[in-house]
Design brief:
The complex is a heterodimer of chains A (762) and B (219). Chain A is built from 31 helices and eleven strands. In chain A, the strands form three sheets. A six-stranded mixed sheet of chain A has the order 2-3-1-4-5-7, with helices on both faces. In chain A, strand 2 (53-59) and strand 3 (62-68) form a beta hairpin. In chain A, helix 3 (106-119) packs across helix 11, helix 12 (280-309) packs antiparallel against helix 13 (318-344) and helix 28 packs antiparallel against helix 29. The longest helix of chain A has 36 residues, at 611-646. In chain B, helix 1 (3-21) crosses helix 4 and helix 4 crosses helix 6. Chain B folds into three domains: 3-60; 66-140, Arc Repressor Mutant, subunit A (Orthogonal Bundle); 145-217, Ferrous iron transport protein A (FeoA) (SH3 type barrels). Chain B contains nine helices and nine strands. The longest helix of chain B has 24 residues, at 62-85. Chain B has 219 residues and is α+β, with helices and mostly antiparallel strands. In chain B, the strands form two sheets. Chain B has a six-stranded antiparallel sheet with strand order 4-9-5-6-7-8. A three-stranded antiparallel sheet of chain B has the order 1-3-2. In chain B, a hairpin with a 2-residue loop joins strand 7 (193-197) and strand 8. The chains are: A alpha/beta (762), B alpha+beta (219). The A-B interface holds A 73-74, 76, 78, 102, 104-105, 107-108, 111, 136, 138, 215-216, 247-248, 250-251, 254-255, 258, 356-357, 360-362, 495-500, 503, 508-509, 533, 597-603, 605 and B 162, 166-177, 179-180, 187-192, 194, 198-205, 207-208.
């Protein structure tokens, strides 16, 4: 199935192929980018790469094709992404391996080197993150290591493009590492017996395959073709050997490798006591200025949000609110400072280390999380979805029939009311000019004018304008924030925080990665569910993504609308969505067969993110999103246009009346929004909101109606692109079952919510 | 059933009633063992000065209590052994532990207890009454083997053995270098356990941490 994602390149002309392998989060993708000039997503957490990327460069001896693989800690597969890496090495096309090792975790890297050596593949090693290794006071005698292993070793700092060209030229002299591990009598005997049963056409040494088969690697049995009889005998040999031990064979084999690597590193790696410390000035600034200020604003903000949520019940005077907020800030400063000074001030830890600990501290991490979410909301929901969308929609695109009136080109200083207007830009909007030009040829009432520039469902006026005006700023800003969370190392720390909650819904903390990713784009996130270990977890997370995780475009639009209702309604909305997520997750974890895997996840170090990488990543992701969403917007608008023109819309509206009007209590005009929901939910939100707005006339929209509509459309069926990816990843049957559940369920929740709201008459 | 075994079973049950409800009513004993058996043995137990009868309540004497604790201890230690080391399922170990408690002597229990690192709770989470070996282990401050989940945050420990039932978890642990002999620091315990070794920080479930048995390193 991975052929689908591998970019098909004509490989015949290539001189040879190299495969980039290594542990997760060691920088393979950065090096891939530097070698081939092709961008693949780079982040600071394990499991960013879930697909195989291929690229090429022209080397001294012709074109070289480079394959980037998902990180793996072992070549015995545990999850789908690890299997991908291993299967690539088992294909005979790959002639050379470039192994990237995180130098400060060299021990774990060499465990893989040992397995590559067993396969008999020539390797060149890049010891990456050399700077971090030095900073931590670890010294590695690379000359000695090079001699011991007999393979070229290059020190690299991939993010600074240091040593990458040396690594490139070392590929020519790649050798099979001189590693021979004796696994002990019984296992060796088993290996020998299995080797005899293996087919001749293997791309790697039989010993490696035999060892993997002994390790109960059943996915491997599909990859290499063994006839049934031999397989049966192999199983017998394996089971016989297993009976002689109390521990699983795979564990014994890997323990031997660990011991071997420990021996090998003796005298090569040494740790000096002197670590590079954060400078005195920065350090004191951190403890005495930055952290108190930060913690004050955390407490201030958390208290403010709390008051906002209960604002309609407690009417406090403005002074009182301010006093409470300041008190919140003071408590927070006290608590943070007490913790920092008692625990961290005297230790010699780096600031990034301290931040790494704080962001997963049992108590402190929660207010930090709230503030992080709040800032994302501020930037994406208010600035992105509010001002930017307004500006692009009304000023840049405008209306085909009316002048937008132009805008002021100005700068303003944040938090003050001071602004400087440079000039007034007399730009009336792209759509206006288009409409103006078109009207030279055809009248504004003609069919084609309406099809493209009509006010109600014009493909350009509505479809293109909405998709770009709404999606571009919201998605762009979200991915910017998301990139910051990824590259700093904050995202995986969230996994530590939410592990317990996620266990209730049959997942573990690791699933926070696809879930938060889903807040950006559910389609991308559905691909990322591959990092989860069991099938059950992958199905649950796919279901929850499709059901209860609104993507950034949708979220941005919703946030913009929710900004108009009270804090109470805002809280109700969030509560309903969360509770449905928990409920459905809980029930599906009980109903679905299969197991949940245990939570075991590596925490990457907290790092200063590289802005250029974040910008690049945001650019690629936004582009991806637009490519996927704009056609659907246009298609949706087109369908709506046809439905309106042919009068089918009225039929559908009257058919949907019992549900929409009587059950949900919404005006029938919102029906077309739900139709759009089948394509894209964000578009649906806009359409429903406009319908409610029109219905209300000049009056304010009934907040209860709004909340019900938003809840239904949030839970509504996934967008078409996501649905296709669901089919690809989970199969037709699962995808349709999920759809068949979500569709009625979303209406049910909306209806029940309506009656509850009526009962308690908020 | 031999008299002694029956008396042991009854002592054990009285002790457990006291543990759960704070007192042992005769009615509860009747429900469990039947009128006949109770009628036959209660008198004998009073005679042996194992219990006292206060109307409908049964109270263990000092001797009775000691004996009951020893039986409970044998039972729960056996559960630990069968569950942790021999990896038996719940129903199996429950049954075997019931038989086990009647034929092992105190010395064997002490050595199993030491082997298991003087466990304090049974697999069901109930307290195991400490034996002499546990008390002397505490006094002598000998390095004790504990599950990783019981190490305090900030302390260092060395992995002694891993007893997980899941092959996949064991494979994963060994692939990232968590094997016997590894020295690690417990970085934090809530909301999830995070350990640090070398330059690797690893977050893991309590379930896994319970299966990693470590020896605390005191500096």
């Amino acid at each position: 199935m991975h052929e689908l994602v591998e970019k098909g390149l004509d490989s015949k002309k290539d001189e040879f192929r190299i495969a980039l392998v290594g542990n997760p989060n060691v920088g393979k993708s950065v090096i891939f980018g530097l070698l081939t000039g092709k961008y693949v997503t780079v982040s600071n957490y394990p499991g960013t790469t879930v697909e195989v990327s291929r690229g090429r460069y022209v080397g001294s001896s012709g074109t070289v094709e480079v394959v980037d693989t998902p990180g793996a800690n072992s070549l015995i597969s545990h999850s789908e992404d690890e299997r991908v890496a291993r299967d690539i090495l088992l294909k005979d096309e790959e002639r050379k391996v470039v192994q990237i090792i995180d130098a400060k975790n060299i021990r774990r890297g060499l465990l893989i080197t040992a397995q590559i050596a067993e396969m008999g593949l020539p390797v060149s090693i890049g010891l990456n993150m050399w700077d971090e290794t030095l900073d931590r006071g670890i010294s590695i005698n690379t000359d000695k290591l090079q001699k011991t292993l007999g393979v070229p070793i290059t020190k690299t700092i991939a993010t600074q493009n240091y040593g990458v060209s040396a690594l490139k030229s070392s590929i020519n002299s790649a050798k099979i590492p001189k590693i021979k591990i004796n696994y002990g009598g019984i296992i060796e005997e088993g290996i020998k017996k299995i080797e005899e049963l293996l087919p001749d056409n293997l791309a790697v040494k039989r010993r490696a395959v035999a060892t993997m088969l002994l390790s109960y690697d059943e996915a491997l049995e599909e990859t290499i073709k063994i006839d049934k009889q031999s397989l049966k005998r192999i199983h017998k040999i394996r089971d016989d050997a297993q009976k002689r031990f109390g521990h699983p064979l795979s564990y014994l084999i890997s323990k031997r490798r660990n011991d071997y690597v420990d021996n090998l590193l003796e005298g090569i790696v040494s740790i000096e006591k002197e670590k590079k410390l954060t400078g005195v000035v920065l350090r004191n600034a951190f403890f005495f200025v930055i952290m108190p200020l930060f913690s004050f604003s955390v407490g201030f903000k958390v208290m403010g949000l709390l008051l906002f949520a209960i604002a309609s019940y407690v009417v406090a005077s403005e002074q009182m609110v301010l006093i409470l907020k300041i008190a919140g800030g003071a408590i927070s400063v006290g608590f943070f400072s007490f913790y920092l000074f008692s625990r961290e001030y005297k230790t010699n830890r780096n600031i990034s280390n301290i931040l790494g600990s704080l962001t997963m501290h049992p108590i402190i991490a929660w207010p930090i999380l709230i503030v992080v979410l709040w800032s994302i909301y501020k930037v994406v929901g208010e600035f992105g979805a509010g001002e930017c969308v307004d500006f692009i929609e009304n000023k840049i695109f405008g209306s085909s029939l009316e002048r937008s009136g132009g805008f002021d080109f100005k700068v303003f200083i944040p938090f003050t009311r001071i602004e400087y207007i440079f000039t007034h830009v007399n730009f009336q909007g792209i759509n206006y000019y288009l409409g103006f030009l078109t009207q030279k040829f055809i009248s504004a009432d003609s069919f084609f004018f309406e099809l493209f520039l009509g006010k109600d469902a014009g493909v350009i006026q509505i479809g293109v304008t909405y998709s770009i005006a709404i999606i571009l700023p919201i998605v762009g800003f979200f991915f910017l924030g998301f990139g910051l969370m990824e590259d700093s190392g904050y995202l995986p720390r969230l996994a530590v925080m939410v592990n317990r909650i996620f266990k209730v819904i049959g997942l573990n903390g690791k699933a926070v990665l696809p879930m938060v990713m889903g807040l950006g784009c559910d389609t991308m996130a559905t691909l990322t569910t591959r990092i989860l270990d069991t099938k059950k977890e992958r199905i649950i997370s796919t279901l929850l993504l499709a059901l209860a995780v609104p993507c950034s475009a949708q979220l941005g639009v919703i946030a913009g609308i929710l900004g108009r209702v009270s804090g109470l309604h805002f809280s109700i909305y969030i509560f309903v969505i969360f509770s449905q997520m928990l409920l459905v997750g809980y029930l599906s974890s009980k109903i679905l067969r299969g197991t949940r895997s245990d939570f075991l996840m590596e925490m990457p170090p907290f790092r200063m993110p590289k802005i250029s990488n974040i910008l690049l990543k945001t650019y690629y992701r936004t582009k991806w999103f637009l490519k996927e969403a704009v056609p659907l917007f246009v298609l949706g608008t087109f369908i709506l246009f046809i439905l309106t023109k042919l009068g089918i819309l009225t039929y559908i509206e009257s058919a949907a009346k019992p549900v929409v009007k009587y059950f949900l209590g919404l005006p029938v005009e919102t029906t077309k929004g739900f139709i759009l929901g089948f394509l894209r939910r964000d578009y649906a939100v806009v359409s429903i909101f406009k319908a409610l707005e029109e219905k209300a006339g000049g009056l304010t929209i009934d907040p209860n109606q709004l909340i019900v509509a938003l809840v239904v459309i949030t839970l509504f069926v996934p967008c078409l692109a996501n649905f296709f990816v669901m089919i690809k990843e989970r199969g037709v049957k699962v995808a349709f079952l999920i759809l068949a559940f979500i569709f009625p369920f979303s209406f049910l929740v909306g209806g029940v919510l309506r009656y509850i709201l009526q009962l308690i008459s908020i | 059933m031999a008299d002694e075994t029956q008396i042991e079973e009854m002592l054990e049950y009285i002790w457990m009633l006291e543990e759960d409800h704070g007192k042992a009513e005769k009615v509860a004993m009747d429900d469990k063992f039947g009128n006949e058996v109770i009628g036959k043995y209660l008198g004998e137990m009073v005679e042996k000065k194992l219990i006292n009868l206060h109307n409908s309540r049964i109270v263990l004497t000092g001797t009775g209590k000691n004996r009951a604790e020893m039986i409970i201890r044998r039972h729960r230690i056996a559960e630990r052994l069968l569950n942790d080391v021999l990896e038996m399922g719940h129903d199996e170990f429950e049954h075997s532990a019931c038989q086990f408690e009647h034929f092992v002597n105190e010395e064997i229990v002490a050595s199993i207890c030491t082997l298991l690192g003087h466990p304090v709770v049974c697999p069901h989470g109930k307290k195991i009454p400490p034996g002499d070996c546990c008390i002397s282990a505490r006094k002598n401050l000998k390095p004790v083997i504990n599950p990783l989940s019981e190490i305090k945050s900030g302390e260092r420990a060395k992995v002694v053995y891993i007893t997980t039932r899941s092959h996949a978890t064991l494979d994963k642990l060994s692939a990232i270098g968590v094997i016997p002999g590894l020295e690690l620091t417990v970085h934090q315990k809530y909301p999830s356990i995070v350990i640090q070794y070398g330059e690797t920080q690893l977050a893991l479930d309590k379930d896994i941490a319970q299966d990693i048995h470590v020896r605390a390193i005191r500096s």
